[in-house]
Design brief:
By secondary structure, the chain is α/β, with parallel strands linked by helices. The protein is built from eight helices and 15 strands. The chain folds into two domains: about 150 residues, Medium-chain alcohol dehydrogenases, catalytic domain (Quinone Oxidoreductase, Chain A, domain 1, Alpha-Beta Complex); about 150 residues, Rossmann fold (3-Layer(aba) Sandwich), CATH 3.40.50.720. Helix content is about 25%, strand content about 25%. It binds NADP nicotinamide-adenine-dinucleotide phosphate (NAP). The site of NADP nicotinamide-adenine-dinucleotide phosphate has 32 residues, from helix 1, helix 2 and helix 8.
Amino acid sequence: MAVTGKRVVFVKRPVGSATPDCFAVEEFEPAALEPGQIRVAVAFSSVDAGIRTMLRGEGFHRQVALGDVIHAGGVGTITESMADGWEVGAAVSGRLGVQTLATIDPSAPGFGLERVDASLGSLSLHLGPLGGSTGVTAWIGIREVAKPKPGDDFVVSAAAGAVGSIAGQIAKRDGARVIGIAGGPDKAAYLVDTLGFDAAIDYKHDDLSARLRELCPDGVNGFYDNVGGPVLDAVLDQLAMRARVTICGAVSQYDDMDNVAGPSMYLRLAERQSVMEGFAYFHFPDRIEPARTELASWVRDGSLVVSEHVLDGIERYPEALQFMFDGGNTGKLLVKLD
Ligand SMILES: NC(=O)c1ccc[n+]([C@@H]2O[C@H](COP(=O)([O-])OP(=O)(O)OC[C@H]3O[C@@H](n4cnc5c(N)ncnc54)[C@H](OP(=O)(O)O)[C@@H]3O)[C@@H](O)[C@H]2O)c1
């Protein structure tokens, strides 16, 4: 009997929110393996805020064409191999696409295929704390760009999300006093009680500017921003002298990239002799391995709180982006495919 797989394809460009009807789940029969190819049974697909920016059709990042399988990171196990050095049973991660069976040439650069250490625990760790667009992004953003100093008042936005929850924990390790911004009282409690942040602001219910003044009366020394928009403006307005603002992303802007709202408070940078610097983790290729090594050591010794939000079944991928943009996830959002 022929093996069938399931995959999620892009069927409608979103206007505003990436609603489930922008995607379709379809069955397919994988083609016979060709020399040099492997087949991977994908266990988990990553849901990343940045995927929303790939659905636009032009401009920012790689774009997904209508009819394409959604480009997402995945992790799984090789089930068939005609490629030297990639044996059946090995665990791998890479840009496998949202599909239960991925047929790829591991030497092709677009897939970024890597072996992963299955002994660390769930394979999903390689999309979360050890994944390029999650833990590694947080590590590089903190260690190479934000560089918080002991005693700094350091603010993180989307702090209960995948990148933010790890970025804040690393800043805390590095001696900063960490204040997380997240939506809702449960997330605010999670930041303090579970992640060990010093304070939290629920931007959906609190007066963000007033809380920043209260929690950081001498100003914010460092800001790791995942959100942009009004949150970025509120923090810029409360910067200390010689502060560093790190732009990791701007999730509040991704649903309407034709009308990105620039920060109206940017003149505070001049007034407070401060800097704002953006980054992408892949611009630091020589820091990816050191990041993974240290993150893996924290996972092993249990000192990094690893938080996952798993949606069960490939049929749930179409709802995942909207779920994330509505703030549904705490920690790394994943879809379990197998
Ligand atoms: N620079 C890089 O190399 C790089 C690499 C990967 C990711 N990133 C960036 O990292 C950021 C986080 O990505 P992620 O995949 O880890 O997602 P995530 O933080 O796990 O999820 C996104 C979170 O953003 C918050 N959010 C959504 N809409 C918002 C709005 N309008 N205002 C404020 N908060 C909002 C939601 O939490 P609340 O409930 O708190 O609202 C949501 O849970 C994104 O900006 C992404 O582009 C950058």
